[in-house]
Amino acid sequence: MLRQHSQFFSTLMFLGDLLIAVGAWIGAYELRFATPLVPLFHPEETVPPLAQYLYLLIYLVPIWAVVLHYGYQYQSRRTTSIGRELASLTRQIGLGMLALLAVTFLDRRYSYSRVAFAFFGVLCLGGMSLYRLAFRAVLREMRRRGMNLRYVVIVGAGKLGREIARRLNAHPELGFKIVGFFTRRLEKVKTFVDTIEVLGTYEEVGSFLKRFQIDQVILALPLEAYERIEGVLRSIGDAPVDIRVAPDLLQYRTMRGSVEEFEGIPFVNLQETPLVGWSRLLKRLADLLVAGLGLLLLAPLFGVIAIAIKLSSPGRVIYRQERMGLDGTTFTMLKFRSMRERAEEATGAVWATPDDQRRTRVGAWLRRFSLDELPQLMNVLRGEMSIVGPRPERPVFVEKFRQLVPQYMLRHKVKSGMTGWAQINGWRGNTSLERRITYDLYYIEHWSLWFDLRIIAMTVWRCLAARDAY
Predict the structure, then answer these.
(1) How many angstroms separate the CA atoms of 180 and 389, rounded?
(2) Better-scored residue on pLDDT, 80 or 360
(3) Are 412 and 395 in contact (CB under 8 A)?
(4) Same-domain status, 241 and 284
(5) Which pairing describes strands 196-201 and 176-183: parallel, antiparallel, or unpaired?
(6) 373 shares a domain with 419
(7) Mapping DSSP to helix (H, G, I), strand (E, B) and coil, where does residue 249 land?
(8) Are 237 and 206 in contact (CB under 8 A)?
(9) Of the given ranges (147-151, 175-179, 322-326), which has the lowest mean pLDDT?
(10) Which residue, 69, 96, 391, 418, has fewest beta-carbon neighbours within 10 Å?
(11) Is residue 257, in this structure, part of any structural domain at all?
């Protein structure tokens, strides 16, 4: 019955997509020729009859049916994010548009407006996207109410199996109902694990599936028990269930892990370099825009600060210091000088303190509002830094910290920043390294352009109200 329900929902979405495609094509005709949005390019041009555009539906409907159906648009997507689903939909619509344009090139009976095709693509993508959002919202509400469920058993009641159960139970909108665990030895576990019943041993999975309707089996065996997978699969046999394997690699995952496939072989990526492709380009464009505008608008302030530094103490205006950035490479970071010239000759590299006697009077004021960091806008333009990212440290400190703090060097998988998630949450200067790394890695894992804008806005506010910078 559950599989029949699944087929019903897939068919409903498929038919809805075809209706949206037909409506989008007719809507594109109306927008092009019945509205003043885009005037006719030639005054003598006549408006083509609607029947001419309806003729193309002979090709459009089957093309869309094939492209969407074989583009895996109607598989169960309970655990797929809406972003990935819409990205897949965009690719399929693009493919369909190319096929439709090829048909119009081969069938010269009529010619069609390119503007109308553009309208069609936008309307089709927008309509199908909204349809999916609404469909997803309805299904998730149904699942919260106990309908449209998938019944799951987990083979393995260890740490990994319990973590999978916890995460599935935390999202009732996905509609996974955990029936129970299978474990290696019954005498070593309780009748229930985390309120979930223990149904039997690994060898009893197959007999259980014959007696009860189960939709999915999740293999969550520890690494030392992987040799038992073959026996479990043999026990399951040809039972009509989906089988998923959850690799026991959680303890080895460090940053932005993922799974990909090459020639039919799955690869589990335990650690990947973040911010690649379009994300990297988008962040770089944002850096150039913010840094360029910042230098332009703050030029008068730069002049005032330079004069104040010169008048308050002898020495350079700009202080240059070696820091470690992306992939462990070093660069020269720029700052307005806030200490006496050659202040570290006697002490060497040390942390700044609240009552640091090396500061000048102007330097103390600059540090209070973080104005000494402004020259790093030049580092951003040169590509050595980003506006937002983990703050760069001096190599002498990095060598010490990497020995003390696990995963410390992972913060160097992205460009260093003028400001960062750790800094605006109070973890700057001589504070807990462990907490700072936790915040830096959180930023890397959850990066988005909106997250960067949020951090920039919070930085401006905290600088204006700052009392803890030194």
Answers:
(1) 44
(2) 360
(3) no
(4) no
(5) parallel
(6) yes
(7) coil
(8) yes
(9) 147-151
(10) 69
(11) no
Q: How many domains does the chain have?
A: 3
Judge if 236 and 382 occupy the same domain. no
How many Cβ atoms sit within 10 Å of the Cβ of residue 463?
Answer: 16
SS3 sequence of 346-412: CCCCCCCCCCCCCECHHHHHHHHCCHHHCCHHHHHHCCCCEEECCCCECHHHHHHHHHHCCCHHHHH
Q: Is 287 in the same domain as 224?
A: no
Tokens 């992987």 sit at which residue? 226
Q: What is the DSSP string of 181-225?
A: EEES-GGGS-SEETTEEEEEEGGGHHHHHHHS---EEEE---GGG
Is the dihedral angle over the CA atoms 304, 308, 310, 316 positive or is it negative?
negative
End-to-end CA separation in angstroms for the chain: 67
Residue 454: CA count within 13 A, CB half-sphere: 9
379 and 314 share a domain?
yes
Has residue 22 got a pLDDT over 90? yes
Bridge partners, 197 (sequence order):
192
Contact residues for 260 (Cβ-Cβ < 8 A; gap 6+): 266, 267, 269
- 284 and 423 together in one domain: yes
Q: Indicate whether 342 pLDDT > 80.
A: no
Tokens of 457: 């806005």
264 domain residue, yes or no: no
Tokens representing 349 are 């590299």
Q: Which two tokens stand for residue 174?
A: 């996905």
* Domain end among 208, 237, 252: 252
Contact present, 451 and 439 (Cβ < 8 Å): no
Range of the domain at 132: 2-144
Are 137 and 174 contained in the same domain? no
CA distance 337 to 332: 14
Q: CA–CA separation, 198 vs 224, rounded Å?
A: 21
Q: Which residues have CB under 8 Å from 302's CB, separation 6+?
A: 374, 375
Q: What is the DSSP letter of 45?
A: P
pLDDT tens-digit map of 259-306: 665 555 556 655 555 666 677 888 999 999 999 999 999 999 999 999
Spatial distance between the Cα atoms of 360 and 366, rounded to a whole number of angstroms: 10
* CATH code, 158: 3.40.50.720
**Residue 271 within a domain:** no
Asked if residue 177 is part of any domain, the answer here is yes
Q: Are residues 340 and 429 in the same domain?
A: yes
